[in-house]
Amino acid sequence: MTKIVVVTSGKGGVGKTTTSASFATGLALKGHKTVVIDFDVGLRNLDLIMGCERRVVYDFVNVIQGEANLNQALIRDKQVDALYILAASQTRDKEALKQEGVERVLNELAGMGFEYIVCDSPAGIETGALMAMHYADEALVVTNPEVSSVRDSDRILGLLSSRTRRAIEGREPVKEHLLITRYNPNRVQDGQMLSLQDIQDILRIPLIGVIPESEAVLQASNQGVPAIHLQGTDVSEAYKDVVDRFLGQDRPLRFIEAQKPSLLKRLFAR
Amino acid sequence: MRTSAASITRIDIRHGQLPLVVARLRGSDIDALLRDLDHRYGDASGFFENEPLLLDFSDWAESEPASTALQQQALLQALRRAGLRPLAYQAAPVTWQPVLDAAGLLATESHGAHGMRLPAERTESPPPPPAPAMPQASASALVVDRPLRSGQQVYARGRDLVVLAMVNPGAEVIADGHVHVYAPLRGRAIAGARGQADARIFALALEAELVAIAGLYRTAETPWPDEVRGRPAQVRLQREGDGERLLFEPLV
Asked: What ipTM was estimated for this complex?
């Protein structure tokens, strides 16, 4: 059984692509055959974050339009065996994503024995985002602890419950998971960021994880390495927890308590 | 060819009734009127769905300045664009009648105090009953039991609306009758959308961005009174001298 998971948010720059890369990598590290697809046609980023931008010959749109087959377009990850990447086109626009074409590609991937298809949604609520979510079975809704991001995630949750195939066909709804990224407990304590409670009060969907704000994320994306590979960092640990919870294991929430800076640190911070 | 019974006819005419919306025109400044129309309904496409409309001129004073035929056409077009279908008029000034008649509108009897004479031959056909602005609240309420999220809108046409889950910021609940929200109300709530002044808004936790009753609205820019904010509350219209104001009351 193939599961299609969309990583979506509405708002841009909240960490969808970072999450898609790390989440797909995490699933593959657990031995599940996984493909991650970049739906952000025209603004491709996933291949950069996955560090395979120089190996892109054919892309998702080429496959949809029949100019290449899937085997030609799928890029095998160099570090993780069970992981494949389908890059977005840099030169086309989102109108190239036709529903029948997307469905055909997803069916073909299912036929190739992929267990998980991770769809990295573009920001916004236009064609690209709607296509990325249309065939989803589950959704990771990526939200930052700030009002506008929460509002946009709320909008996306509304679309997930009305515009996806599961909703249209009246089947069991898309399973929604809330993933809070860029969470900084110290800034929450100071009232600069919304708390977990504030966010869940509005969105009211199960929380699958909290990714702390960290410079490691920037470092990882500049190096073209999914953040989950940065052993020993909070971000890597937090993403591993997310993957475990997604696969049904119980993991306590981490990295959500404010750290009191030591007296020395406070003195030197001046 | 003969049918079995002579009583069966190909056409059967019987008495019927049509719910109408009524547009009361307040004064003949058509440009200002068009601006108001655009302001209130311009961005709510689909608010009206091809609804039959009675144009009511009975608020006009005798001395209203005359409008040009062009302005008159523009008004009809704007109403059609808003999704209304002008079907009839009443108490129209004589200068308006040619354009209205040419557009196929039916003249109906004036109920206003100042009787504009209507052409006698027009009154032969039975005029549609002057429907109240608000259809009778006989229809049962529309019940919504899923959360309404940012960007979602529910409109209970001609009836009450009952929402059992939260209404989030950016969502909109609209009813021609009352609006009940048995959960936090954080979005916009509009009761009495067609002018029914006795409509009310009820919420289990009033945290709305905006409340409106019969067109009178208030936003959360001025915070809701302490005794209702975040608590079970109702909002209703209270008559006060000439005007009306929104009254916020806690529900015990």
From this structure: 0.76
